Amino acid sequence: MPVIRSELYIEAPIETCFDLARSIDVHARSTSQTKERAVGGVMSGLIELGQTVTWEAVHFGIKQQLTAKITEFESPFYFVDEMVRGAFKRFRHTHEFCAVDSGTLMIDEFDYTSPLGPLGKLADRMFLESYMMNFLLKRNLYIKQLAEKQAG
């Protein structure tokens, strides 16, 4: 059960960072390398508490679908999305935002369990955990760039 945690300082207001992180459109643009697109649930705009989105993407050469639901939400401080259906056995993705100095500290925590028991644990150690870490970092850096440009 790897937990990937990152903290990123963004020179932009907390509300801007919060909204960019829950934007379906921003998510799709930030994950263009995997051809990620919304195909069900909320398909554009800002996702809210209780809503779901189904993403279709290509990971490791395989087209996959994953549905996540917003299970916790307190604007503009945090929201949580959890997998309803998809390739993982489960995941819980917490997005937290703290106003600091003249900007925002964005704290991202992705807690997941791979499928297939011992084989999934082996895949985590061999490649999946680092793949997910890079995937999430790229997305968060995209949010930082957009937020700081908007705050500019």
UniProtKB/TrEMBL annotation:
<keyword id="KW-0132">Cell division</keyword>
<dbReference type="InterPro" id="IPR005031">
    <property type="entry name" value="COQ10_START"/>
</dbReference>
<dbReference type="GO" id="GO:0051301">
    <property type="term" value="P:cell division"/>
</dbReference>
<keyword id="KW-0131">Cell cycle</keyword>
<dbReference type="Pfam" id="PF03364">
    <property type="entry name" value="Polyketide_cyc"/>
</dbReference>
<dbReference type="InterPro" id="IPR023393">
    <property type="entry name" value="START-like_dom_sf"/>
</dbReference>
<protein>
    <submittedName>
        <fullName>Cell division protein</fullName>
    </submittedName>
</protein>
<feature type="domain" description="Coenzyme Q-binding protein COQ10 START">
    <location>
        <begin position="44"/>
        <end position="120"/>
    </location>
</feature>
